[in-house]
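Input set for joint prediction.
Command: fold jointly, output tokens.
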Amino acid sequence: MSAAMKKIALVAENRMIAEDIYSMWLNAPDITETAKPGQFVSLYCNNGSRLLPRPISICEIDKIQGRVRLVYRIAGKGTKEFAGLKEQDQIEAMGPLGNGFTLEGKKAILIGGGIGIPPMLELAKQLDCEKQMVLGYRDITFLEKEFETYGKVFISTEDGSKGVKGNVIDAIKANGLEADIIFACGPTPMLRGVKAYALEHGITAQLSMEERMACGIGACLGCICKSKEVDHHSNVKNKRVCKDGPVFYADEVEL
Amino acid sequence: MNTNVTIAGVTFNNPVTTASGTFGSGMEYSEYVDLSKLGAVTTKGVSSIPWPGNPTPRVAETYGGMLNAIGLQNPGVEVFIKRDIPFLRQQKAKIIVNVVGKTTEEYCDVVERLADCDVDMLEINISCPNVKEGGIAFGQDPRCVEAITTEIKKRAKQPVIMKLSPNVTDITEMAKAAEAGGADALSLINTLTGMKIDIHRRAFLLANKTGGLSGPAIKPVAVRMVYQVANAVKLPLIGMGGIVGAEDALEFIMAGASMVAVGTTNFINPSATPEVVRGIEEYMKKYNISDIHELIGCVK
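tokens >
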């Protein structure tokens, strides 16, 4: 039995870092032991009317203290419940889940869009090459200072209040960034843009996808994405975001 | 203490199985559950050719439940026979294969392909739309229920469970029709058709607009229907719909189900099924029940 099990974790810290954006550290040595950047944790609500786990990507892994950091946005009643948790509170968690990023390349662009930004932080920490971070926001920025430790940070905002006005691709073009590998996490329209950009420039890209999930362990087939080839598990052109992903090479998936 | 139950000549170690579609082919849960410790594994629906299913979003949470419109994605019967049956047998699990189709011919094709396979029972999902009858589900018309049961029984070499849809005016009519068609057992309930609207996007939550409601929210409806059907037909019943723990399972058993299936809860707690088995045993010990049959249909 090597699968991640559902266990009780202790909240070590939980605070708001921007409007509706929270940063939570969980004491969860079982999770940190094997966790990789790009994987996620399923968090369970304490209210029986909210059945399904909330998949939250891993923002940082502290193996020494056995702590994992999750940065999440209040998107509904479940994440609102999480935001109310205090230090020493208990929460049911299962993880790490999913495949995570493959560490590769000599010169990388790490692209995060909105709540797709947090997983890029642990990746930036672990990736051993020249790194350029492109962070796309609607308006309010978060985490950008923490990225500066690991390389140069480029920002785009939709309203132009900070960095380049526009999206992450606009920021890449405006700053003339070059790379041999792209890592990206964000909403599907952004990933579509990243895939097109990578293809056009002949750059390998790893994309972390999001989709509505139920189980998080590859059983319910709720969170599929379209794959280029017939998948061995589904025997159709569907891959499971939770189990086969969330990270896919851009040429594996149809967006 | 005896927890064995026998349905249509097949004996199960205990009365707990899995609801089709919530347990993959069993393989997905083998790291969480010793499959041989379950009464049986009921597999995800299998069709004659691979089905790609519906577009996403396919799932949505609702109060105390969830909606799904997976669209019965499955790898098709060929892969199922080659890959999943040997795996389940190797795990020493009893196998109930759920069968889906869009036409009577498609159902019969799967049943015939499975006829000489090493599986214990077949469960027929008749909540699929019958494309030749304008898309109304097979399970929503008693004539269709009887006809498809008869056709399947002609070809099946394993006992046949007909899985009833709750989306009908009177479920006992459908139960009687399946009995008339020669069904060996009935399972109920399938999901209740529902809908959720995202008021901020002013759009349906599910790409398919409607989906099947499951989870604890539907349990009282399911228990009621099991009770009604138990009093309408002589066939053994497998009860399901919103079972979270052993207490829920016992309600179904007392309402008349010989066996129960854990469904949506598998998504939330992957090791729920052995916990339900243990909980039933603990209940029997506590109340000094020596045989599970003392509980089946004990509430009149």
